[in-house]
Amino acid sequence: MAEACRIILNTTFLPSLYSLHKTHKKVSYSQPFLHKRHTIQCSISTSSDTKAAAKAAETLPWGCDIDSLENAEALQKWLSESGLPSQKMGIQKVEVGERGLVALKNIRKGEMLLFVPPSLVITADSEWSCPEAGEVLKQYSVPDWPLLATYLISEASFEKSSRWSNYISALPRQPYSLLYWTRAELDRYLEASQIRERAIERITNVIGTYALIFPLDRYNDLRLRIFSKYPHLFPEEVFNMETFKWSFGILFSRLVRLPSMDGRVALVPWADMLNHSCEVETFLDYDKSSKGVVFTTDRSYQPGEQVFISYGRKSNGELLLSYGFVPREGTNPNDSVELSLSLKKSDECYKEKLEAMKKHGLSASQCFPLQVTGWPLELMAYAYLVASPPSMSRQFEEMAAAASNKTTTNKNKTYPDIEEQALQFILDSCESSISKYTKFLQASGSMDLDVTSPKQLNRRLFLKQLAVDLCNSERRILFRAQYVQKLIFYVKFCIDKLKGIEQQTITNIEMWKQNIHQSYAFHQNSLAPITCFRPGLVYTRRSRDEAYVDASALIPVPETVSLLSSSVSSLPPAPAIDPPPLRRSSRNSHPSNRYGYSPEGFNNHKSMVATLFSIAIPSSYSKL
């Protein structure tokens, strides 16, 4: 499913519908002459029963199996006859995506491809087979998303009478979308992931677009507001819950926003056969000079190779949410996991902190994206607020403002007095999430799928594997964050201990601290350049055999330290277990605490420096 510059959706993707309560003049239409529509018998029931959902999907008379080439080849022939230029790509069955566009000739890097003319692009301004239906929706100012969803259903119901019949016949009858997961499947397979909440919210929004769920949804309810008033234009046998689920599934997986067409959203036949690759950065757009939708390759392709575009910089969870697939673990540099942070009601300043949060659009339970490359400044600001004592009450609002995405001021401000408590709060939240993922993954191997039908068994196995892949990738990011936070605590402790032992000046301590990090960064080859250890910075060790750092071989350090660093090179490699603890010096015979070190064990320079420099980031945490 092609997407370039794909629309980044909040789950509340229909906010403008709530403003449609203004009075409309009822448009009077005489019974139009309609081509015979294909009707679908379906109720409004939102039952989560798997068999019922599967049966309803099978009743759709349009679309095809997702790996069908017959309808796709018919689409290609129709597009060519309708003005699509000769292509260097053809539709074939592929390993990634089941159907995809494959190079038929050599394709150079930087070459412009596709050239789909505007006449073959579906937008909110496209002509309807039933013009009266389109006029009614425009009279009610229905936004693009629900309008296009209704348009797809309307055109599909006219079958061969619709100009788009060849395109609709090539669309999957049941898109790979979380819209087709039942509530029981979401609860069971995504119980550890925050994507579950977003999926439930998205499904609720889609259902609420068609039928009333809550009293406040009455202005979102197309059935109540429009369809019931014009039953001859929008018969319930055609416009019902199952057909809307199908059309929104198509939109989520195929709709693109074209920047050069003033950000207009569109369905682009042929282009939407392109699959996504995390390694590709090219996307679709409208080219004014050639007057067509194009993309420019960022690499060369040989005949027989599948051609890819980017669906946008999305996490694995977002890709599953909209497109129904999860990239292979470790291949998505934009992967992230939503970390939930919560203000406890037992906090003695709960009322004051919550008031500050609400003032800036935050809540007592807030999610922040945690990436393999770090975490946002807003997350650290939220952690400062939660960890702050009553004596800092005057700064509550300042912290809440920094934690909000509504302002860009003071986001870099730190609070050294509570930094350790804030980091501890984040670490506790990471470990709580890790335990949920681990529990699910351990139980997934023996999970009863509760089905007897071979077809349903295959479906459940497929859904479970998607969930396992997602949970593994999200837990990996949490492990990474956990490891780096422990490393922060570790280095801070070592520096404080050194200061106490040697009575060195603040200047020497800071210089030594910088040299430690510079040595570590330089020796690890792919670490980001740093001058200090800051929260939010994550260090990436891509591939390196060394499991320790020989500080004396690189950047000079204060004499008292360099004299002792020679012992480091003789240390054995750090163990790579999952999740790995921080490695301790062999001199340390005391039990380690939760950060992997024992304060009492650092009784001299040699053992402390050896332990500090033996830290290596295991490849299982950082390899991309």
Automatic annotation (TrEMBL):
Gene Ontology molecular function, alphabetical: protein-lysine N-methyltransferase activity
Positions with biased composition (Pro residues): 572-582
SMART domains (UniProt xref): SET
Stored Pfam families: Rubis-subs-bind, SET
Signal sequence region: none
Record-annotated SET domain positions: 87-312
Region (Disordered): 571-599
GO terms (BP aspect): methylation
InterPro entries attached to this UniProt entry: Rubisco_LSMT_subst-bd, Rubisco_LSMT_subst-bd_sf, SET_dom, SET_dom_sf, SET_RBCMT, SETD3_SETD6_MTase
Keywords in alphabetical order: Methyltransferase, S-adenosyl-L-methionine, Transferase
Protein name: SET domain-containing protein
Organism: Dovyalis caffra
Lineage summary: Eukaryota, Viridiplantae, Streptophyta, Embryophyta, Tracheophyta
